[in-house]
């Protein structure tokens, strides 16, 4: 034992710059490594937790979107009216023209309301009638014809129960799309000066007032034009 000790002492004396390791150095190194390991584990845990949180949030968002989509009413549908719709169209026009009682007289409203026979004559005359359904209910209609290479739009109505929802614009835009598909350069419409809502609607759809004329029953109509 003494020899080994002396040999070690000799070895130490031969290398004076070398110092024996101390316990506190190992302790600090071990503590640093443990700290870095703890940081890595902590970061990994946070990342996993964040990923699970994002997945949970995404699941809730997706389910909420699905619920909103489920609760949202279906969009309105526009299609060509057929002869089977004659009675329903007549009822719709009667209900629609009963509303502007403060604008038009009873006689004027009765004259503007087409019967089922009138609507049947539209079909026979080559005019196109489009119907708008909302929640499986007929709530709007419009008529358009194509005289002399242009599109003439009239007889637009929306049921009073569902007005101010943009259905009138949907119908007008549908007719304009029909005119564009037929490569017609212009679309026309005319509206009684007292029907302010109809005038605003045509302006919103891009029509411009080009003039006005008086009818035989002394009504003043404004002529609207739109280039397709």
Briefly summarize what is shown.
By secondary structure, the chain is of the alpha+beta class. Helices cover 50% and strands 21% of the residues.
List keywords for this structure.
228 residues, alpha+beta, 2 domains, 7-stranded mixed beta sheet, 7 helices, disordered N terminus
Question: Can you tell me the CATH class of the largest domain?
Answer: Alpha Beta
Helix/strand class: alpha+beta
Low confidence ranges: 1-16
Biggest β-sheet, characterized? 7 strands, mixed
Question: Would you tell me the overall average pLDDT?
Answer: 81
Briefly note the CATH topology name of the largest domain. Answer: Aminopeptidase
Distance between the termini: 111 Å
Number of strands: 7
Q: CATH superfamily name of the largest domain?
A: Gcn5-related N-acetyltransferase (GNAT)
Order of helices and strands: HHEHHHEEEHEHEE
Q: How large a portion of the residues is in β-strands, by DSSP E?
A: 15-25%
Helicity, as a percent range: 40-55%
Overall radius of gyration: 41 Å
Major sheet: order of its strands?
A: 1-2-3-4-5-7-6
Q: Tell me, what's the shape?
A: globular
* Count of runs of 4 or more consecutive helical residues: 7
Number of domains: 2
CATH architecture of the largest domain: 3-Layer(aba) Sandwich
Provide a descriptive summary of the structure in words.
With 228 residues, the chain is of the alpha+beta class. It has 2 domains: 19-71; 77-227, Aminopeptidase. It has 7 helices and 7 strands. The protein has helices at 2-14, 23-71, 86-97, 106-112, 116-124, 167-181, 196-204, and strands at 77-80, 128-133, 138-145, 151-158, 186-192, 208-214, 220-227. Strands 1-2-3-4-5-7-6 form a 7-stranded mixed sheet. A hairpin with a 5-residue loop joins strand 3 and strand 4. Helix 3 packs across helix 5 (116-124). The radius of gyration is 41 Å and the shape is globular.
């Amino acid at each position: 034992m003494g020899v080994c000790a002396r040999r070690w002492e000799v070895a130490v004396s031969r290398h004076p710059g070398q110092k024996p390791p101390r316990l506190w150095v190992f302790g600090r190194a071990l503590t640093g490594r443990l700290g870095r390991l703890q940081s890595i584990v902590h970061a990994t845990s946070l990342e996993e937790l964040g990923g699970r949180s994002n997945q949970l949030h995404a699941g809730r968002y997706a389910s909420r979107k699905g619920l909103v989509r489920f609760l949202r009413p279906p969009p309105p549908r526009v299609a060509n009216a057929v002869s089977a719709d004659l009675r329903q169209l007549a009822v719709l026009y009667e209900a629609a023209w009963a509303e502007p009682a403060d604008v038009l007289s009873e006689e004027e409203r009765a004259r503007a309301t087409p019967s089922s026979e009138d609507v049947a004559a539209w079909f026979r005359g080559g005019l196109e009638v489009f119907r708008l359904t909302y929640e499986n209910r007929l709530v709007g209609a419009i008529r358009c014809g194509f005289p002399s290479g242009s599109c003439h739009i009239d007889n637009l109505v929306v049921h009073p129960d569902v007005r101010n929802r943009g259905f009138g614009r949907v119908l007008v835009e549908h007719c304009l799309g029909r005119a564009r598909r037929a490569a017609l350069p212009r679309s026309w419409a005319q509206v009684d000066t007292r029907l302010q809502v109809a005038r605003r609607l045509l302006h919103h759809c891009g029509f411009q007032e080009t003039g006005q004329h008086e009818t035989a029953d002394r009504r003043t109509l404004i002529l609207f034009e739109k280039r397709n």
